[in-house]
Amino acid sequence: MTYAKDFTTSELMAAGVARQIRNDDVVFIGVGIPLMAGIVAVATHAPKAILVYEGGGIGARTRRVPWTISDNPATDNAIAASQMWRVFSDQQRGFVTLGIIGGAEIDRFGNLNTTVILGSGTTYSRPKVRLPGSGGANDIACSAGRLIIMMRLQKGKFVNRIHYLTSPGYLTGPGAREKAGLCGKGPKMVMTEKCTFGFDEKTKEMYLQALHPGFKAEEIKKLVDWDLKVNPGLKETEPPTEEQIGIMRNFDPMGFILGAKSSKIETFDEFYQKVRRGYQAIKLNR
Fold this sequence. Notes:
Layout: H1 9-18, E1 26-29, H2 33-43, E2 50-53, E3 57-58, E4 80-81, H3 84-92, E5 98-102, E6 105-106, E7 112-113, E8 116-117, E9 129-130, H4 137-143, E10 146-150, H5 176-180, E11 187-191, E12 195-199, E13 206-211, H6 217-222, E14 229-236, H7 242-251, H8 268-281
Parallel strand pairs: 1-2, 1-5, 5-10, 10-11, 13-14
Antiparallel strand pairs: 3-4, 6-7, 8-9, 11-12, 12-13
Helix pairs in contact: 1-2, 2-7, 7-8
């Protein structure tokens, strides 16, 4: 295993999430970086992992970048092309072992808000900011065996108390999920562009687990509204391997997900050949 020396933050995040996917996982996955994490995992250490898309695709092995949860690549070479109600009902029955979601606000117990941001003199019907809402995130947070959260670490996003509970983490702390009757075990990691957070097994409170290159614990603590605990063995985030980077860049040669590497203007033939080489380089494991 050789670590890459040239990688972006998006590639670092995708590799970090990919390492959380096990060979026996059924992963409820979205588009963007979570999709890239799933592709990398299946192409490396977890070839038997099954990727599930919200639109109904189960176990796709695609060479194309899906733009939405129900885009055609979400069912390329798939085990099944089902429907949204079916994959969500399977999830609620406990068949999904790992879910990956995002949020606009998060608190120390991993509860997420993607509904409204309130301010002085505002109400739910007339909030300061109206957000997209739950989509399938609430179902995933309630029912998936494990949960990974991906979001940006900015001041005002990691708060003591979220404005609205859209998707449950550990609610009020130890035992609260079980009391509420939730079958999923709750969040295990929060991946950001600056660091990763874990959750204490006893207190269920979020703590600083690892730092991405170039960041310090003091910087992270200033962006979090509570007294953030720090892993005594705090280390730097494990970098992507050359193999992982190669898979990502072959799958996304134009940088649609990972970000364009160049602003060079290309002819249509150059564009076509680059995308074609990317598709041909991807192995479809089953």
